[in-house]
From TrEMBL:
InterPro entries associated with the record: NagB/RpiA_transferase-like (IPR037171), Ribose5P_isomerase_typA_subgr (IPR020672), Ribose5P_isomerase_type_A (IPR004788)
Protein name: Ribose-5-phosphate isomerase A
Name of the gene: rpiA
UniProt source species: Methanofollis fontis
GO MF annotation: an example: ribose-5-phosphate isomerase activity
Keywords: Isomerase
SMART domains: DeoRC
């Protein structure tokens, strides 16, 4: 898929998800290029249809984009529940386990997902895979980086500290932490791996989302339109 086709697929998925937002909803706003299209379209619908939407951002990126789009933004502690969250993913398996955190926002994304009644995952077709195989982002308290790396190697992973692109040194998350991208090859038991990663002292959250399949709908953008994926 060319970069242009890929962006168009993301736009189609993001826009389709935004159409599911209804007047009066509290909506979780995901992070990443696909979720940004949904934010943009929700903003347009607020202008065009005069619907009232409260947005709960998952990152500074989504908070800033939501403000630009004219969406009222409230932080997660300001609401008791979220009607619908629209977010992207780095990989989606056949059972709707996810790898997230390509934008280093997976801790807040998981908090928002947890508080949500329904989750729309928006992606292009390259994100869909029978099994999870992509590196797992792990948010780590900087003080604990070396020890966490040792635990991850003992679990069979190969951790790499994520480097910033336009700054020297590591990526710093919105929570002030580092991210280790951890290659495990094919992940046969994602829930068990998530539990072991999350139990390491100094790990804030790993990017394996394994407990939300029941409330997830996956929308895949394609040139002919948007396809809803069936969970197996
Ligand atoms: O998990 C995420 C951010 O932490 C993103 O949702 C994920 O990386 C997908 O991003 P994109 O829509 O740009 O491909």
């Amino acid at each position: 898929m060319s970069k242009q086709h890929n962006l168009e697929a993301k736009r189609i998925a993001g826009y389709a998800a935004a159409e599911q937002v209804q007047d009066g909803m509290v909506v979780g706003l995901g992070t990443g290029s696909t979720a940004q299209y949904a934010i943009q379209r929700v903003g347009e619908r607020i202008q065009e249809e005069r619907i009232a939407v409260t947005g709960i951002p998952t990152s500074y990126q989504s908070a800033l984009r939501a403000r630009e789009a004219g969406i009222l933004v409230v932080d997660l502690p300001g609401v008791s529940s979220i009607d619908l969250t629209i977010d992207g993913a780095d990989q989606i398996d056949a059972r709707f386990n996810l790898i997230k955190g390509g934008g280093a926002a997976h801790t807040r994304e998981k908090c928002v997902a947890d508080a949500s009644e329904r989750i729309l995952i928006v992606a292009d077709a390259t994100k869909v895979s029978e099994c999870l195989t992509a590196p797992v982002p792990v948010e780590v308290v900087p003080y604990a980086t070396v020890g966490v790396g040792r635990h991850i190697r003992a679990l069979g992973g190969e951790p790499v500290i994520r480097e910033a692109v336009r700054k020297d040194g590591p990526v710093i998350t919105d929570n002030g932490n580092f991210v280790l991208d951890c290659a495990f090859g094919t992940i046969n038991e994602p829930a068990a791996l998530a539990a072991r990663l999350n139990a390491i002292p100094g790990v804030l959250t790993c990017g394996l989302f394994t407990e939300y399949a029941e409330k997830i709908t996956v929308l895949i953008g394609e040139s002919e339109g948007c396809r809803t994926l069936t969970r197996r």
